[in-house]
Amino acid sequence: MIQQQWKSTCDVYNTFHDNADPAVVSDLQTKQDAFVASMDNSNDQHIIDAKSGFTNYLNSFTSLVSLGAATSCPADITFTVLNAPMTIRLSSMCPLFNIIRLFLNLGVYLLCFTMLVRSIQTA
Q1: Is the model's pTM score more than 0.90?
Q2: Contact, 91 vs 75, CB < 8 A?
Q3: pLDDT tens track for 12-69
Q4: 22-60: b (≥16 Cβ within 10 Å) or e
Q5: Which of 4, 30, 40, 46 shows a CA-CA span of 20 to 30 A to 53?
Q6: Which of helix, strand or coil describes residue 85?
Q7: What is the residue-wise DSSP string for 47-79?
């Protein structure tokens, strides 16, 4: 049944796509662009609330994923080899360290969750 629905949806799309008049498609695209632009500049309270809610969710997710205020990027290491200064730029690798930290935390959380589930199953 799902395969039949998928096939019929694809057939409808292909029929529209193959037989569509380019002027009609262009007109629909223009109307869609105008609608999206009007929503960007809308004074409708529902749209304003939706935008602010999305912004709040995005900010909370960003603060969850990003480095906290207590941590900072490591300083660059500078040393001399054969009278030539060399620098290991650890500060430019801060985003990579952030991603590694995120995956380590995820691994620890999954390990704790697995231990909790197994202790509940054996109890």
Answers
A1: no
A2: yes
A3: 666 666 666 677 777 777 887 777 777 666 677 777 787 788 888 777 776 666 655 4
A4: eeeeeeeeeeeeeeeeeeeeeeeeeeeeeeeeeeeeeee
A5: 30
A6: strand
A7: HHHHHHHHHHHHHHHHHHHSPPTT--PPPPEEE
